[in-house]
Amino acid sequence: MPEPLLSVENLRTYFSSSRGTVKAVDGVSFTVERGETRAIVGESGCGKSMTALSLLQLVPEPAGYIDSGRILFETRDLLDLTWSQMREIRGREIAMIFQEPMTSLNPVHTVGQQIREAMSVHGKAAGEATDRAIYLLGRVGLEDPAQALRQYPHELSGGMRQRVMIAIALANQPKLLIADEPTTALDVTVQAQILALIRELQAETGMAVLLITHDLGIVAEVADQVSVMYAGQIIESADTRSLFKDPRHPYTKGLFASLPARNRRGQDLATLEGIVPDAAAWPPACRFAPRCPYRWESCDTLRPKLFPPESDRPVRCHLYDPTIPGWPRLEKAGTTAV
Ligand SMILES: Nc1ncnc2c1ncn2[C@@H]1O[C@H](COP(=O)(O)OP(=O)(O)O)[C@@H](O)[C@H]1O
Ligand SMILES: [Mg+2]
What we know:
This protein is of the alpha/beta class. 31% of the residues lie in helices and 21% in strands. The chain has 12 helices and 10 strands. The protein is elongated and about 70 Å long. Magnesium ion is lined by residues 48-49, 180-181.
């Protein structure tokens, strides 16, 4: 196997707050292979954005900081790079798009200025940059790219702004695109168009995508691999087909059960009760235990590890670890399979 493009190992990103240390990202590991799409999916507040921002060292300072871990991109650990080396990587080798393009586009600069700026920081000459800007804006589906160059962000619709962000992200042909909820602010039709565009561009350029979302429907549509995040940790990883066929962690099962009915054929009608616990005080052992229908004593005393380790189908749940006291737990009356 060739080395993965990106390999994140045991990443911990914390915040200092008046309530103590907030462990927003708490020991996260995953890989992204060249050309593939990995989704990270989970409810709001589980640490998805902080994981993404950590990769580019854009965690909000001074409260937020990367406590430990490794972020291997090709051969380098990004955490060893200087600020200026990191600036070379950002936008050129790894680009990022966000949920609300209005906050990352500059309202007082035209689209053309911003897309050319993205290229000139990485050394493209002005004339060349304009030609490529027009090409890119056309490629992402703007009808009149030359006109769009002269427009300001507020003159565009939300969908058009996201297309512009994608054009900027692609300007320097990154090897990895990080997309943090790229379609969440858009209506369903535009959402589908943007996802299709990302897929097409990926097929064309061979870039890898790390897609952050709270929406399993989006995972099904675009991801090759998926990691489910809960309370600062990855609790299950799998290839997308396996996860949809056989979700294993009780939290993942709950996410599927709460999907709209058309996606729920054959599954029971349970919904996910309760809320994500406070990141300043995660439950002591299994973080999902307070919401889990399968909880037993060991869930409150022993921290579940991803099991089996080093497998392509790890689950952070005692139900799948025969070394845990009390295993195998007796099924709840009326259920046959966990
Ligand atoms: N500025 C901050 N100060 C303290 N804690 C923060 C700050 N920003 C984020 N967090 C914590 O990090 C957790 C994860 O946030 P985030 O990565 O944005 O979640 P997601 O993207 O999954 O919705 C939040 O639940 C919150 O507790
Ligand atoms: Mg987020």
